[in-house]
Amino acid sequence: ENPAYQAEFDAKIDAGGYIEAKDWMPESYRKTLVRQISQHAHSEIVGMLPEGNWITRAPTLKRKAILLAKVQDEGGHGLYLYAAAETLGVSRDELLDALHSGRAKYSSIFNYPTLTWADIGVVGWLVDGAAIMNQIPLCKCSYGPYARAMVRICKEESFHQRQGYDLLLTMMKGTQEQRDMVQDAVNRWWWPSIMMFGPHDKDSTHSAQSARWGIKRISNDDLRQKFVDATVEQAKVLGVTMPDPELKWNEARGHYDFGAIDWDEFWNVVNGHGQGNVDRLAARVKAWDDGAWVREAALEYARKHDARDSQ
Ligand code: FAQ
What we know:
By secondary structure, the chain is mostly helical. Helices cover about 65% and strands about 0% of the residues.
């Protein structure tokens, strides 16, 4: 560690400036970013699976086109994020190996199954809604390549959230059976969605340091509260209720109070024992193995061109 470089780094962080790939940075800052950005990338890629499950069963051509576009966007988000992580000196192969061997984390939410078409709407509304709430502050995080990647990602997430809400509004205008399907999906996804923001601030290992470094601009609990406040109002318009009897407006706080989160369930899922963990990982490993011939062909093509260029 070089004290002069450290002072320059601290001054840049304190002034709210951006750290760029070639700038000096403490090793622990680099490691934290690699961890968070790669987990985020893995979440986008694994997050394609629950929705991909419904592409062939979308009820209309319009809904199918929307869903296809959304899932492709998620693939794109994963790729920009891997590229942002690579600027920190790790290779994509290393990151993917960590995912495929089960060493890397990805968001807990993607280990829940999408059982009905209403789940697709609820994933857009709640899961993308939670994702945007967490990602808007990341557009201003201190690491330039991550912050810039987040700008475009947030624009696309906003479309994702709105298509989900629109899908649900349509279903709520349909039959009683459709309305029941929406309510059932909300009942299953509400708690996992508010868990997405991570442990309470007091139990969050990385929060204090990440806040100091300007990576985390708003805390886990504050983001969760903002999400609950915004979403409960949207639920009223939709005509659904959240599965939480303790959810009620608190005039003094100016926020909604809500019930206790089941952290045992959260950690169980994070540690690989949720309903979908085994299948999700197996699907990613299979996709990687099935794609081996494409990677080999691309490398061979590049080798031939290099050989021709150097003649
Ligand atoms: N799931 O100390 P903290 C999307 C872990 S959105 C699993 O608070 P930190 C879009 C955490 O890694 C979803 N693990 O950690 C989409 C740490 O473990 P570690 C992805 C979780 O990093 C929508 C430990 O708990 N978004 O993909 C979770 O300061 C629809 C202690 O926690 C992002 O990744 C969780 N929910 O704060 C795609 C956003 N929460 O690493 C398809 C970027 C916590 O020490 C369809 N990430 N953990 O082993 C972040 O903002 C942060 O990393 C937090 C966690 C806020 C997620």
